[in-house]
Design a protein that fits this description.
The protein is of the alpha/beta class. Helices cover 38% and strands 15% of the residues. The protein has helices at 18-32, 49-55, 82-85, 97-102, 107-119, 132-136, 140-151, 179-196, 217-221, 238-248; strands spanning 7-11, 39-43, 62-65, 91-94, 123-128, 162-165, 205-209, 228-231. Helix 1 (18-32) packs parallel to helix 2, helix 1 (18-32) packs parallel to helix 10 (238-248) and helix 7 crosses helix 8. Bound molecules: 1,3-dihydroxyacetonephosphate.
Length: 251
């Protein structure tokens, strides 16, 4: 099996302003800027991307956006296109459950965003995950398999793809999935990729997200199909986030 470099990505969501985000970036960069053996990504709000980039310059931490439009330009008030992000970010989160739930994003739209991003040379971090009712009904695996397949409809750039399994019930609740649950579901994601692109299945990174912290990260990362974490709350605390990076890195 191909060795997969782990990924620790911080999704700051709608937190921090330019000043506090820049300070947070500086702290993360000082604590973790040189850690190797792990791809380190922070995803600040759009308005802070430039100042966060400056604050982290000289480090190997990469910058991601939290969303992107599937449209190239035009009358889409408030939206941000891939061409606006080119040169500013290496990654973009698409299909986060908050956008699916609060902004009504469909898997078709998520697929269009992922394709547009990849075509622009920006790696999509594509999120999927079931809510509590789906899990309680025993349908988590089939739901996630269908959601991922639909969110990858027409997608072709397998080298740039990162998938993030984020069960909705674990996000921001302090109740992470167990490592067994997370392993089972990331394996489901990998099987979907194997079906769509057999040669890519062992190289695409599949992350877990949902209440990851320094107390549970090691056990999650030890699972064979979990290649890292997409982190919300703990990515807003430099020391805590740096512990996650250290757990995934090689020094
Ligand atoms: P928390 O780590 O705060 O649970 O958030 C996870 C998440 O949604 C990352 O995208």
């Amino acid at each position: 099996m191909a060795a997969r470099t782990p990924v620790i990505a911080g999704n700051w969501k709608m937190n921090t302003d330019v000043e506090s985000g820049t300070a947070l970036a500086k702290e993360i960069s000082e604590l973790s800027g040189d850690v190797s053996g792990v791809d380190k990504i922070v995803c600040p709000p759009f308005v802070s991307i430039s100042s966060v980039t400056s604050a982290m310059s000289g480090s190997s931490i990469q910058i991601g956006a939290q969303n992107v439009s599937a449209n190239s330009d035009g009358a889409f008030t408030g939206e941000i296109s891939t061409s606006m992000l080119q040169g500013l970010v290496s990654h973009v989160i698409v299909g986060h459950s908050e956008r699916r739930a609060l902004n009504g994003e469909t898997s078709d739209q998520v697929a269009a965003k992922a394709i547009t991003a990849a075509e622009a040379g920006i790696s999509p971090i594509l999120c999927i995950g079931e809510d509590l009712s789906v899990r309680q009904a025993g349908n988590a695996s089939s739901f996630v398999a269908h959601q991922l397949e639909a969110s990858l409809d027409g997608y072709a750039d397998w080298d740039s793809l990162i998938v993030a399994y984020e069960p909705v019930w674990a996000i921001g609740t302090g109740e992470a999935a167990t490592s067994e649950q997370a392993q089972e579901m990331t394996a489901v994601c990998r099987e979907v990729i194997r079906k769509l692109a057999p040669s890519a299945a062992d190289s695409v990174r599949v992350l877990y997200g949902g209440s990851v912290n320094s107390g549970n990260v090691a056990e999650l990362l030890a699972q064979p199909d979990i290649d890292g974490a997409l982190v919300g709350g703990a990515s807003l605390k430099a020391e805590e986030f740096s512990k996650l990076i250290a757990a995934a890195g090689s020094d």
